[in-house]
Amino acid sequence: MKTSQFFRYILGGVISLFVILSTTAAENELTIPRIQGQPSLADFTGMQPNTPLASSMTKVENFIQREPYDGQASAQQTEVYIGYDQENIYAVFLAFDTNPELIRANLSSRENVFEDDRVGFMVDTFNDQRSSFTFVTTPMGIQSDSRWTESSSSRGGFDSTFDAVWDSEGQLTDRGYMALMAVPFRSLRFNESNEQVWRIGFYRSIPRYGEDSFWPEYSINVEGRLNQIAPLAGISDVSPGNNFQVIPFFFAREVDALNRSFVAGPKFERTSEQEAGVDAKFVFNDSWALDLTLNPDFSQVESDEPQVTVNQRFEVQFPERRPFFIENADFFSTDS
C-alpha cells in the first residue's frame, strides 16, 4: 500500500512539473508581425511607440537577471519591439535608466563593445537548439556579431569570426538610450519553408552593475542556452535570396633602403612592391554556397588584430579572420 502511494506521489510530481514547463513555454512564445515600412528611432521619440508602425510591433519586457542575482528582475526597465518585412527582421530596444548620465557609451571599432552598455538578441533560425546568430549593439550603434554553438565541450560557445552585413543605430536620451537593429534575411541561414519557426532571446548588459539580464529568463541553474530562449512564430514567405559578396584588396608600398654594394659608395635605392587579391562568396537560395579566394593575404587589414609583444616568450600567433578560411571551419575543429 505504501509503495503504491509513493509511486502515485512520484507520478503526480512528474505531471505537475510537465504542466509547469508547458505553461512557461507557452507564456514565452512570441509571434512577430509583418510590418508595413521600416521602423526608425523617430517612431519611438520620448522612449515610447508614437506612430502606427511602432505600435504594430510586438512588445517584449520584464527582463530577468542572470548575473549578478540569478532569477531577480533587472535593475532597469527594458522594452523591445520586434517586427519584420520582406527584407529584414527589426528589433528596437528602449533601455530605460534612472541615471542616464552613468551609461557607458563610447565610439569604438566594430566588435569592441564589451566595456559599454549594450543590448542584443540571439536567433536560432533552424529551431534545433544547436546553433544561433547573435547581434549586439551599444548606445552609439557600434556592432558586434557572432555565432553561438551549443556544446558542453570546448567547441561550444561564441565564434566572433562570424561577420554579417546589418544595420544598427543608437541614441542617448534623458531617460536612457534607444537602439535599432535591422538584420537582413540574406545575412542569415534558415530552412526553405513558407512558415518559419525560430527561437529568439533578448539581452541587456549594464556594466556598472555587473548585470546581464535576459528575456526569456536564462538561468545559471539550467544547463544549455538555446533550450531557454523563446519559440518565435509569424515569419512567412521570406527567403535569404542570393547573397553575393566580393572583397578585393590591393597593397602597395615603396621603400628607400641603403645599398652598400655600389663601388662609388653606399646610396639609397628605392624599391616598390604591389600585391592584390580577392575573396568572394556566392550563396544561392541558401542551398549552395561557393567560396572563392585568390592570393588571400589580408595581413594589412582587420585580419591581424593588435597584440602585446613585449617580453613575449613564444612566437606571435594571429587568429584566422580571412572569410574563405573561417566558413564552416568548426567542421574541422576538435575538442583537444
Give a concise summary.
This protein has 2 domains: 24-236, Immunoglobulin-like (Sandwich); 242-309, no CATH class. The protein is built from 3 helices and 17 strands.
- Low-confidence runs of at least 5 consecutive residues: 14-26
Largest sheet: 9 strands, mixed
Number of helices: 3
Q: Assess the beta-strand content as a share of residues.
A: 35-45%
How far apart the termini lie comes to: 53 Å
CATH class of the largest domain: Mainly Beta
Mean pLDDT: 84
Helix coverage percent:
10-25%
CATH topology of the largest domain: Immunoglobulin-like
In total, the number of domains comes to: 2
The structure class reads: mainly beta
Taken in chain order, the helices and strands follow as HEHEEEEEEEEEEEEEEEEH
What would you report as the Rg, rounded to the nearest angstrom? 25 Å
Q: Would you report the number of β strands?
A: 17
Query: What is the correct CATH architecture of the largest domain?
Result: Sandwich
